Amino acid sequence: MEITETWLRKHRPIYLRATQHPFILSIRDASLPLSSFKRWLGQDYIFVRAFVPFIASLLVKAWKEGDDEANVDIILSGIATLNDEVSWFKREASKWGVSLDGIVPQPANLVYCSFLECLMSAQVDYTQAVTAFWAIEAVYQESFAHCLEDGCKTRDELKETCERWGNDSFGQYCRALQGIANRQLEKASDQVVAKAEALFVRVLELEVEFWNMSVLGS
Ligand code: HMH
């Protein structure tokens, strides 16, 4: 079995807390207050801006590692997606009357953004960084894909958001990242694998905190 698959089984409870969070469940049953959605939108914009330099650093690590061109291209496509995402956030925010200028990052967001900054350091190798990247993208993919399942009551105004991360091609992209992570982990030392596993779990915790913040506004 692939390494990331063993982790998904071993850490299933926290994985489910991240991907089936009350924030997501309340999109599914249309009970999410729109104020919570708007809060998430503003906070996630700040997160995405911090995500840009992280992915850029990951691309550099992939290149230095001499990873296959095909893998570098997958990360490059992630950068292109993020570029679209930044524009989308701006459009979406103006649609909802959310001003992106004056947003104060909340504590959970600051903690997550400083985690991203740590991942950029040279101490974190390509294997660890790409594993964390996969986990960050996969949580959003799985979470928002849930909101598009048959029988969900997801409001029309929120469907575009859910499709952004929940669509099949984003799913394929996440599986491609998972493949890169698995191939790197296969040839890594036990020590690096252990560090990557700890990062995986940390991402899940940070995602739970991020959703909590969006629901509760803490
Ligand atoms: C908090 N996690 C968070 N925001 C995002 N936009 C993603 C993951 C995926 O891009």
TrEMBL record:
Which SUPFAM superfamilies is this protein grouped with? Heme oxygenase-like
Binding positions (substrate)? 44, 85, 137
Where is each Thiaminase-2/PQQC domain found? Answer: 9-214
A Pfam cross-reference name:
TENA_THI-4
Active site positions, chain numbering: 207
Q: Name one GO cellular component term.
A: cytosol
Q: Domain of life here?
A: Eukaryota
* Cross-referenced InterPro entries: Haem_Oase-like_multi-hlx, TenA_E, Thiaminase-2/PQQC, Thiamine_Salvage_TenA
The Gene Ontology biological process annotation of the record reads: thiamine metabolic process
Task: Enumerate the PANTHER family for this protein.
Answer: BIFUNCTIONAL TENA-E PROTEIN (PTHR43198:SF5), BIFUNCTIONAL TH2 PROTEIN (PTHR43198)
User: Would you tell me the protein name for this molecule?
Assistant: Thiaminase-2/PQQC domain-containing protein
Q: Which organism is it from?
A: Salvia splendens (Scarlet sage)
